[in-house]
Specification:
Elements: H1 2-17, H2 19-41, H3 63-72, H4 74-82, H5 85-89, H6 95-128, H7 133-138, H8 142-166, H9 171-193, H10 201-222, H11 228-233
Helix pairs in contact: 1-6, 2-3, 2-6, 3-6, 3-8, 3-9, 4-8, 6-8, 8-9, 8-10
Length: 236
């Protein structure tokens, strides 16, 4: 755990020094809160009941998809670009420790950002939305879906981002590919938000189970990529 913690702390320090990563952590939450805020604040009180059948809050699930995708893309490509990968891999750290430290350094900040923005969003709606709007939103199952699916979506984005990062020498290219790979999940959340797909209890449980299985498989697929010689020699 000491070595995992060392990697974790090192990554957090790198985030603070990287303006593009800081911008991504600020920009993506803003993108996915503007549309729900507009939809809610322009709605008159008389239409509050109709919001019960809508799923505006699911739009914000884009935050735990894109924020970790951008951060995870930095995991290996960033080390290569800064020429710090080889010194790290020459230490006694194990493959699993290296991977876990990198993943946790993306996972925990992403959860903090996603939950903080969501909580702030609910607080703003409670305080400033027209009467009846807030209960119509918070009385649905969307809050539970947000809480449960945030870590599942973040974990999947992390494995995809790290996989892309191991095959890239350029951080920007890795981030672009990682974000692009996350677009199918973004599309699904948008379809739920605009009721193109009507959610049901069975569908939500199925999607949650599939994501959980995918996250476990993702760990098993990504771990073999962390071969010292292959990582140092770079992608071919």
């Amino acid at each position: 755990m000491r070595r995992v913690r060392a990697i974790f702390v090192k990554e957090l320090r790198e985030y603070g020094r990287n303006r593009s990563l800081v911008a991504a952590m600020a920009l993506y939450p803003l993108i996915f809160t503007v549309q729900p805020l507009i939809a809610i604040f322009v709605a008159p009180s008389a239409t509050a009941a109709s919001l019960i059948g809508h799923h505006e809050l699911t739009f914000m699930l884009g935050i735990p998809i894109l924020v970790p995708a951008a951060l995870a893309a930095f995991a290996v490509a960033g080390e290569r670009q800064q020429e710090t990968l080889e010194p790290v891999l020459e230490t006694p750290i194990k493959r699993e420790e290296f991977l876990l430290g990198k993943a946790l350094a993306v996972f925990l900040p992403s959860l903090v950002i996603a939950y903080f923005v969501f909580t702030l969003f609910i607080a703003v709606v409670e305080l400033f939305a027209k009467p009846g709007i807030a209960p119509a939103l918070t009385g649905t199952d969307d809050v539970i879906v947000q809480v449960l699916f945030t870590p599942l979506l973040a974990a999947w984005s992390i494995w995809v981002g790290i996989a892309v990062s191991t095959r890239s020498n350029d951080v920007r290219v890795a981030q672009q590919l990682s974000v692009l790979s996350s677009l199918p999940l973004i599309l699904v959340t948008i379809m739920f938000s605009f009721n193109i797909i009507q959610p049901s209890f069975e569908l939500v449980v199925l999607l949650g189970a599939l994501l959980l299985v995918a996250d476990v498989i993702g760990w098993r697929l990504i771990a073999p990529l962390f071969d010292r010689e292959k990582l140092i020699s770079g992608p071919h």
